[in-house]
Amino acid sequence: MLRLLQIRRSRLSSLTKTLIRPTQDPSPTTPSLLRPLCTTTSSPPPSSEAELRKYVGYAALLIGCAAATYYSFPFPTDAKHKKAQLFRYAPLPEDLHTISNWSGTHEVQTRTFLQPETEEELEALVKEAHEERRKIRPVGSGLSPNGIGLHRAGMVNLALMDKVIEVDKEKKRVRVQAGVRVSQLVDGIKEHGLTLQNFASIREQQIGGIIQVGAHGTGASLPPIDEQIVSMKLVTPAKGTIEISKENDPELFYLARCGLGGLGVVSEVTIQCIDRHELVEHTFVSNLKEIRKNHKKWLAENKHIKYLYIPYTDMVVVVKCNPLSKWKGPPKFKPKYDEEEALLEVRDLYRELLKKYRVEENNENDATDINELSFTELRDKLLALDPLNKDHVIKVNQAEAEYWRKSEGYRVGWSDEILGFDCGGQQWVSETCFPAGTLEKPSMRDLDYIEELKQLIEKECIPAPAPIEQRWTARSKSLMSPASSSAENDIFSWVGIIMYLPTMDARQRKEITDEYFHYRHLTQTRLWGEYSAYEHWAKIEVPKDKDELAALQARLRKRFPVDLYNKARSELDPNRILSNNTIEKLFPLTENV
């Protein structure tokens, strides 16, 4: 279209030159522009015909512009259930890396993505970046929903520093490079009869990343994973490599153990392990009324426990895990339904809705055999049909409740296998941590929080999918941990809300994202202040609004030793080469630090 306009413009220019060219005998009293027009031999068209031609030309131009705009716009109005048609960008330079987090919610392009293979290489990279004031933000496996490790100016990743260095069977301690993944570590030490004390839902995190963001498992007597670290090496820009522990520089150790990657690159850690053991997992369904009767006893009696709430239903899925030795052998229990029978209703609902949406939306679904899909994959398929329709989401939640009802039973396996959890597909998730009393005397405010949250969802008609996950940990002595406390017996509850991104349709993902942030904002304004709840560092999102950001900064100062953290940043990383936008926004350095 631009070319067409340029051609028209050039023709108009040549026509103008013709019009203003003077005749051989111009009149001294007549402007040369008018003479050719007045002396032409052909008679001018009638004014009505000229007007008609003018408006026809305008109409043609308008139609042309509309057509060009329609075919240039990548998301037509019927694109709701179609895959996104991406804009055609110019090819990226060969040295430009695209790095995104697992959920695809945060992405950067960078020319600097460093992967040292040895500690010496890492030290040289950090020293050089410090001298050149060049950013190299530490990034782990990229599993954090908020992309806390990403920075377009440059990143350093320790995936190639993934060795198990030393195993002390007597003290049950292992020394590893920080780039080792949890799955690699567990496989590497099982021959020594050791394992980790607790696990998060996913086993693909790098050890350095999982401790720096304060990740956790579940069990009211078990602390977050950072509390298992007894010593660590930190490669700092200003002071080089330092070794810290509770005996050697304890103040910095407890600050840097959950340091958000802002104090140095964690290169090596020593972890306190426990004996490898099997667990018996007991899954059953209950309701909030029954849980209130048994909650205190269940927290105290079970090594690991979590509740999964299904919005718009009364059902709560309870999952307890305890050492096999406590049971004196595997439990004798025969389930009423096998996995195929448990999935039957979910598959039937999918077939039913598939026909409906094919007719109403004229949508061609893929030919995947639904009998090969897991429950979480089926849930994604169901939600993708109409993810923001509350009534549709309620149907999916009800099918999930039926699935869990038919999945009641026991499972026996090694702890690292049992404690893993299929979180589903790409998603937005917000998880908050708040005090819940002590193990001897739970406050019960953890259940109050859930009741208010469920009421909020129903009152605001939020299309909230399942589950709302609730877990517990003991306190952490790491100063920046959301579960940080000086009281030894304190326990904390962690509650996660979720919205899945079950489609690659860009327009639909944007709509889900907007609805998620509305959902999150409601919980923030109605619940966080009342319950002293703070978001998980891997899930906190930096507000774009200046006033909201200022309020968040002030709130973080009430909970965490921000001045102490910033003082350490200034001493260890004065050029801020390890920080990114998230760190700078949450913890702005002031003149008096």
Automatic annotation (TrEMBL):
<dbReference type="GO" id="GO:0003885">
    <property type="term" value="F:D-arabinono-1,4-lactone oxidase activity"/>
</dbReference>
<feature type="domain" description="FAD-binding PCMH-type">
    <location>
        <begin position="105"/>
        <end position="276"/>
    </location>
</feature>
<dbReference type="InterPro" id="IPR036318">
    <property type="entry name" value="FAD-bd_PCMH-like_sf"/>
</dbReference>
<dbReference type="InterPro" id="IPR010031">
    <property type="entry name" value="FAD_lactone_oxidase-like"/>
</dbReference>
<protein>
    <recommendedName>
        <fullName>FAD-binding PCMH-type domain-containing protein</fullName>
    </recommendedName>
</protein>
<dbReference type="InterPro" id="IPR010029">
    <property type="entry name" value="GL_DH"/>
</dbReference>
<dbReference type="InterPro" id="IPR007173">
    <property type="entry name" value="ALO_C"/>
</dbReference>
<dbReference type="Pfam" id="PF01565">
    <property type="entry name" value="FAD_binding_4"/>
</dbReference>
<dbReference type="Pfam" id="PF04030">
    <property type="entry name" value="ALO"/>
</dbReference>
<dbReference type="GO" id="GO:0071949">
    <property type="term" value="F:FAD binding"/>
</dbReference>
<feature type="compositionally biased region" description="Low complexity">
    <location>
        <begin position="26"/>
        <end position="42"/>
    </location>
</feature>
<comment type="pathway">
    <text>Cofactor biosynthesis; L-ascorbate biosynthesis.</text>
</comment>
<dbReference type="InterPro" id="IPR016169">
    <property type="entry name" value="FAD-bd_PCMH_sub2"/>
</dbReference>
<dbReference type="InterPro" id="IPR016166">
    <property type="entry name" value="FAD-bd_PCMH"/>
</dbReference>
<feature type="region of interest" description="Disordered">
    <location>
        <begin position="20"/>
        <end position="49"/>
    </location>
</feature>
<dbReference type="InterPro" id="IPR016167">
    <property type="entry name" value="FAD-bd_PCMH_sub1"/>
</dbReference>
<dbReference type="GO" id="GO:0016633">
    <property type="term" value="F:galactonolactone dehydrogenase activity"/>
</dbReference>
<dbReference type="InterPro" id="IPR006094">
    <property type="entry name" value="Oxid_FAD_bind_N"/>
</dbReference>
<keyword id="KW-0560">Oxidoreductase</keyword>
<dbReference type="GO" id="GO:0016020">
    <property type="term" value="C:membrane"/>
</dbReference>
